Amino acid sequence: MWRRSVVSRFSSRISVSSSSSSLPNPRLIPWSRELCAVNSFSQPPISSESTAKLGISGNRSDANKVFASSTVAATATTGDISSRVASMAGLGHHYARCYWELSKARLSMLVVATSGTGYILGTGNAAIDFAGLCYTCAGTMMIAASANSLNQIFEISNDAKMKRTMLRPLPSGRIGVPHAVAWATIAGASGACLLASKTNMLAAGLASANLVLYAFVYTPLKQLHPINTWVGAVVGAIPPLLGWAAASGEISLNSMILPAALYFWQIPHFMALAHLCRNDYAAGGYKMLSLFDPSGKRIAAVALRNCFYMVPLGFIAYDWGLTSSWFCLESTLLTLAIAATAFSFYRDRTMQKARKMFHASLLFLPVFMSGLLLHRVSNDNQQQLVEDNEAGLSNSASNEVKTQRRKKPVAQPPVAYASAAPFPFLPAPSYYSP
Ligand SMILES: CC(C)=CCC/C(C)=C/CC/C(C)=C/COP(=O)(O)OP(=O)(O)O
């Protein structure tokens, strides 16, 4: 799901998809001039006019002169301080904006949303640990910001050739490379430390590995081979996994459902973008599949296929006890809807159809994740499912059990559990409830 607008790869790409948003943003152009202007305020000249207004002249007494000159000094100092404050505020605003853009903040926020969803799903039926959720989101945000900044550091010359990206902070010269490297290093290291200290090493390791995969594998691959899109899809799929790991300290089969959805979802999303922005990608020197597929038939088929791969996910989520059957229905309808836009693009490969598929992909993800959260079922019930499977229940009995396992388990006295297997022939101990 994702470039500068989902609202970025998620989101950068949204803005790119519409021709108007790919035009240079006039708000960004005057930045360097503005910075110069801000700096010029830091040494305000004291005009002779102002001294005249203060009445400093050779005819005055010494006392008057001292008074007058100290007044000038005080005025100059006040002006100096306020202009320095203005200068600092201007600089702060300038660099805050550069960091925001280097981080592809909207894309990073979407990444955080997937990681947070993974965290809540991984919490199961325990009460959500909101502090843990906040640490996970903050750590993910910092590492995603670092990864996105590194991506831009490596792509300065390519970004400079693309309409969509030429006004980013590095190609437009609003920030220097050493400064951007320092920002990426500090953000990445702080995020990894935060995750390691406040969640666990598994989550910190997954996030750090994902940064490496994105910045050092996916980014150079974009200029080498169209397979980059599939590697990028893995990058996009990992944040919910790290969220789950942060909450539960482990990775299970159940934790793979949202990452799988994100992986398959990104393919139609990127294929639509690659089709819509093919000229820009060609100018930037990127090897997107769309550049090797002039008719668009291949990318349309790839998009459609991946939409179909998402169809079973709702059933799997239900069958594995992660969600109720409502999600099964919702997910199926949602997936068929995005598949319909992909099919329509496959039949008629126009920009309009590609844009429809792109917009459908933008809607899909938040709705899918909200559905997962809304219909999630607890860990207790998941545990029950595992126990059922281990007990090797026959297929005929399994339907009945599936219904049972979704009911809240009734607590039993400890001896009741002990009296089951492995020695059923022993007399069941009686339980006395005080
Ligand atoms: C925790 C962690 C490290 C998360 C990272 C998540 C992340 C950055 C996901 C984005 C995935 C992706 C392939 C974006 C496209 O980048 P692009 O280079 O194609 O976009 P661009 O063309 O706009 O630069």
Q: How large is the share of residues in beta strands?
A: under 5%
How many DSSP-defined strands? 0
The helix tally amounts to: 18
What shape does the CA trace take?
globular
Radius of gyration of CA atoms, rounded to a whole number = 30 Å
Q: Runs with pLDDT <50, length 5+?
A: 1-67, 393-434
Distance between the termini: 57 Å
Succession of helices and strands:
HHHHHHHHHHHHHHHHHH
In percent, how helical is the residue content?
55-70%
Attached small molecules: farnesyl diphosphate
Major β-sheet profile = none
Structural class by sheet pairing and helices: mainly alpha
**Mean pLDDT reading:** 78
What does this entry look like structurally?
There is one protein chain. The chain has 434 residues and is mainly α. The chain has 18 helices and no strands. Helix 6 packs parallel to helix 9, helix 6 runs antiparallel to helix 10 and helix 13 packs antiparallel against helix 14 (325-347). The longest helix is centred in the first third of the chain and has 41 residues, at 62-102. The two termini are 57 Å apart. The model is unreliable at 1-67 and 393-434 (pLDDT under 50). It binds farnesyl diphosphate (FPP). The site of farnesyl diphosphate has 21 residues, from helix 6, helix 9 and helix 10. Keywords: Heme biosynthesis, Membrane, Transferase, Transmembrane, Transmembrane helix. Residues 389-401 have a biased composition (Polar residues). One of its GO terms (molecular function) is transferase activity. This is Heme O synthase.
